[in-house]
Design brief:
This protein has 324 residues and is of the alpha+beta class. It is built from nine helices and 13 strands.
């Protein structure tokens, strides 16, 4: 009979030397589903202990989450179908994609009935924050446009080079650096519409990713990771990473800006930003309303575990007793 794997060992099929970039921020893959039948939640051969956190759908993060040592799994093949699988109680269901974040918000009652714990909010707010076009509208309503890259309403008259990006997309998809209106038209022959936006290009070799634990708009925890790249103008992942560090702390004024974007929001989210060289102020590229690859893969495992444990502590509190 095979021996039981210890918590400190990496899962079989992976090694410490395996290239982390092959799964970090990788595009998620959906398993082909012909017919979904609800049943108990379970993982794969890595899932030898009772899960406390299921991050869904699977996208290659499991071996990094497993190393946190808090029973966080990325093996459950669930994409929001109804009825949901029965939770291995008590267990949190967390999104690994923006689409899944919206879906979890939409089906909160059904998930609760199946025994799942969720930290989420109104689905329209989740969708608005994660959609790059609607994020700008959100910022405008809150008087926060100065914290986003400048927006160009038309291809003509924009300052080039500029960033052309799709309103939806994960992990660098649908993002292009363009140097002229003609180059942009090669990508969007019909010009800009609700599905595409043109933004100011913010140069700089260092980009920051901040994972936040948020409950009703209040920041409960934050972890920042700084990534240094080999050139100042790039679209990830088409760039070489020189270094990364999660040892720094987010300036309080930057945290205040992030919190100002999140009234009413609950969940784990991720802000990507650079610091403007001319002013020293934050410039936010996007908000991901999900567990980010920085938290899942790059943050030191004990620190990432601490954030998940803080989330778990919310499960023992009634909403009225949560931190205000």
């Amino acid at each position: 009979m095979p021996s039981k794997r210890s918590r400190s060992e990496p899962p079989s099929g992976s090694s410490e030397g395996e290239n982390r970039s092959s799964v970090r921020r990788s595009s998620r893959e959906r398993a082909a589903v012909q017919r979904y039948v609800a049943g108990p939640a379970h993982g794969d051969s890595y899932s030898f202990e009772t899960a406390r956190f299921h991050i869904v759908p699977p996208n290659g993060w499991h071996r990094f989450l497993w190393k946190m040592g808090c029973s966080a799994l990325n093996t459950l093949k669930y994409n929001g179908e109804l009825p949901p699988p029965v939770a291995p109680c008590p267990c949190w269901l967390l999104p690994s994609s923006d689409e899944m974040a919206v879906r979890i918000a939409e089906i909160q009652p059904q998930l609760a009935a199946a025994g799942w714990r969720t930290l989420t909010c109104d689905a329209a707010l989740v969708s608005r924050l994660s959609n790059k076009q609607r994020l700008r509208e959100h910022a405008e309503e809150l008087g926060l446009l100065k914290h986003l890259p400048a927006h160009y309403p038309a291809l003509q008259g924009a300052a080039y080079p500029a960033v052309l990006k799709g309103a939806e997309g994960n992990h660098g998809s649908n993002v292009h650096i363009v140097h002229s209106p003609e180059e942009a038209l090669e990508i969007v022959p019909g010009g800009l519409d609700d599905e595409w936006l043109l933004q100011e290009l913010i140069p700089g070799q260092v980009e920051y990713s901040v994972s936040l634990l948020v409950d009703d708009g209040k920041l409960l925890d934050n972890i920042e990771t700084a990534y240094e790249y080999d050139r100042p103008e790039y679209v990830w992942p088409n760039v070489e990473e020189l270094s990364r560090s999660s040892q720094g702390s987010v300036p309080p004024r930057f945290l205040a800006v992030m919190e100002s974007f999140l009234p009413g929001f609950s969940g784990i989210c991720n802000f990507n930003y650079k610091v403007r060289k001319t002013t020293g102020e934050i410039c936010i590229f996007e908000i991901n309303t999900r567990v980010g690859a920085d938290l899942a893969c790059d943050v030191p495992r004990p620190r990432a575990r601490a954030l998940f444990e803080k989330l778990a502590s919310l499960g023992a509190l009634q909403p009225s007793a949560r931190p205000q």
